[in-house]
Amino acid sequence: MGKIIKLPQSVIQKTAAGEVIENPASVVKELIENSLDAGAASIKIHVQKGGQQKILVVDNGCGMQKDDLLLSYKPHTSSKIQKEDDLNSIATFGFRGEALNSISTVSNFTIKSKEPNSPTGWALNIYYGKEKELKPSGLSTGTIVEVANLFSNLPARREFLKSAQAELTQIKQVVASMALANPSVAFLLQSDNKTILNIPSQYDLQKRIQVLLDDAGKFLDVTKKDPHHHIHGKISLPQFSTNTGKDQYLFVNGRYVNFRASTSAIKRAYGTLLDKYQYPKHVLYLQLPHELVDVNVHPRKEEVRFKNETHVLELLHQAIQQSLDKANLTYRYDPKPAQYVASLYSNLKDSVEMWSVSDLPEADSVTEVLQFLQTYLIVPLKDRVLFIDQHAAHEKILYAQILDFLKGASTEDLFEPKDPVQISTEDLDFEVDDSKLALLSDLGLNLTLEDAVLKIKQVPKVFSGLNLEDFVIYLLSLDEAALSLSYSSDVSNMISTLACKSAVKAGDFLTQEQALRLVKKLLNTDLEKYTCPHGRPTMVEFLEGDFERMFKRH
Question: What is the pLDDT of residues 345-368, one digit of tens each?
Answer without folding.
Answer: 333 333 333 233 234 556 656 777
